[in-house]
Write a structure and sequence with these properties.
heterodimer; A: two-stranded antiparallel ribbon; 13 helices; globular; B: Rossmann fold; Rossmann fold; 4 domains; 6-stranded mixed sheet; 22 strands
Amino acid sequence: MEDVTLVVLILDSTVRLSAPLVLAALAGLFSERSGIIDIGLEGKMLGAAFAAAAAAAQTGSPWAGLAAGIAVSVALALLHGFACITHRGNQVVSGVALNILATGLTAVLGISWYARGGRTPPLGADARFLPITLPGAEAVRDAPVLGALYSELLSGHSFPVYVACLAVPLAAWTLYRTRFGLRLRAVGENPLSVDTAGISVPGLRYRAVICAGILCGVAGTYLSIAQSAGFVREMTAGKGYIALAALIFGKWRPLPATGACLLFGLLDAVAIRLQGTPLPGIGEVPVQFIQALPYVLTVILLAGFIGRAIPPRAIGIPYVKER
Amino acid sequence: MKEPTAAPAIELRGIDKRFGNVHANRSIDLRVAHGTVHGIVGENGAGKSTLMSILYGFYQADDGEILINGRPTVVRNSAAAIAAGIGMVHQHFMLVETFSVLENVVLGAEGGALLAPGKARARTELAHLAREYALEVDIDATVGDLPVGQQQRVEILKALYRGAEILVLDEPTGALTPPEADHLFRILRLLRDQGKTIILITHKLREIMAVTDVVSVMRQGAMVAHRRTAETSMEELAELMVGRKVLLRVEKTPARPGREVLRVEHLRVADGYGVERVKDVSLSVHAGEIVGIAGVSGNGQSELLEAIAGIRPLADGRVVLNGQPVATRRRGSDPRKLRHLGLAHVPEDRHRMGLILPFEACESAILGYQDDPRFNIGPFLDYRTIVADTAVKMGAFDVRPSDPHLRTASFSGGNQQKIVLAREIEHDPDVLLVGQPTRGVDIGAIEAIHRRLIAMRDAGKAVLLVSVELDEIHMLADRILVMSNGSIVGEVAGDAVDEGQLGLMMAGIAPAASAAGAGTMP
């Protein structure tokens, strides 16, 4: 029974830790399938996290925080689009610039507005997304296994986590079953085919980066006002890059990318559990090593375990009509 | 089917277009009648593609008027052209290779926000179109897996699915095997007989004669003549295209082969992915003959040529030059050493391998020979000699403009090719490897280049020619080797060619020709 509880707890924190990765990876999916490299996931999440925390602190409403987070993230995405789609700039440079901009701006604004070393004021329960208890969760809590699964794993997450859960099938459906998805996939493979079919290439790509902006906005909001009770400098801590790696593991497909995010989340959850726990035969492992584990595995996985990932053919290439 | 009307399907009046300094279209007038196949010929850069891009709404004309079925129409973008009933089959297909045929066809004409109903409708409609016009393709196949000929059918289906009444095909046979091209022409005739109007853009005069009813000739951005195909000839069209008399066939005397200078034995070459592209090829080239390698692009000819030239490593076999083994699997060769041993190479892709476009002509003209003592004084290049030498070469090969200091990129394709040929030929090699000598070269310059190659041969040199232009092989080669899927599948004498048979061999359909009379394979 104890083992079951332990497993359920680890899975539960896997879900919590994976949610922002899933949202960010899907954001990257929309952008990259349209042919726009999105290395700025990190920056968009960070900007959204700060905006959400600031707005929630100001208004006391998590919904205002969510709106602010999405707005800032979409604005950053449009900036990226303006540089890369309208002005055909280098997408990697623009994305890196976005990340630097977000790191700098959130720190500067945070210090000058709140004078707490870059933190936003701690949020009260009303200003945060709190865990939602699904109906009947308390009633079945004591049922063996299934009860624990329902009450711990499915129930008791905050609103953005459920958004992430719904976003996965929704993204897959959009990509493969709708006109927008077909055109999006086409524009990332061969934009000329889209142009000659009488569809605007920039129009499609702008819509794609806006989708990315919205999803990153939710991810950032989750970090600052659901998982934590306020914004901390650099609180994304590389999650945008991990999400990008997951996207590549998943070969730019929604379900495998989600799987990769869950794997990273699981590694993180296990790492947290293992801190301070002596391992059989090894003894106590230094905390730093455990914390580095997900990143070490990222490198190993990226280096060889995924086979050849074929990116969308037109990715990174600004679209210019002939001549 | 449309009722035949007095108004032409398409009428262009005074279309004018400039790109910066380039006057691509000069006040073009064109009338294309309903239910005809109308050819437009012209050299590269004559403005054919620009004109059609204007018709298709890809560019906007600076001046002039487009009338479709007698009605003035403004074609602001491709969507407007599609709505007006114009379909375009581009030279480089506008297909998404990772998509299925069905997805490619519905892209842009999905008929609703969800895909499923549109796809179902397209499935029925495509089956109908395929039956009516002999356009069979597996609609669930991934486009990237289909052969080029079938991909082209997908493009035609795309246009027809959108209700095109006027079909524009831009250089449609560039990548097709001869049987595929014949099939395409059958489809075009079928479409015409069903009342569609077809505009065929090409620089291949044989196609014009084979399939069109009417032909219009463009030269330097202007429309210079309209002819009924039945009342004109290839010679007349060539003269109209170039603006002077052109010999389509360069005369040559029978070859007098001498000793063997180049021998390739059981050569195998793998590409960067480890896929074997050349499979056990043996051949020999004698002094005083031109050996042509025919084949559809991508069947291993390029790799074969590059391996002999010392650019690609051999997976197996060896290359023997003047009786001396120069490359084996264990001991590779390099182009510089081969040049010293008397082997020169005119690469297939002059922009990527033959020239450095930002360089001045005189610099491009010594590439590969820059260490020659003639061009050096101690550690420095002797610019005066190099410029003088280039001027001589330019004179000998009629390179225009004859300015050794002009940037290589500023020359036309034909003149760039002449620079490469001059560089390699003037060095007096024993063996000349030539890949696609006239790709992207204007018809006037083709004649000059062909004369040069024959002069090489007559001077007792060995020439190995790789070309995807069957006409060119046919005209120049004394012996023709046919390559298909990495192997030499047959050999025919240059003057005893049955083109139908050759086409089948290129497609890998016919076995090694029994008619390969003049076989002299080692």
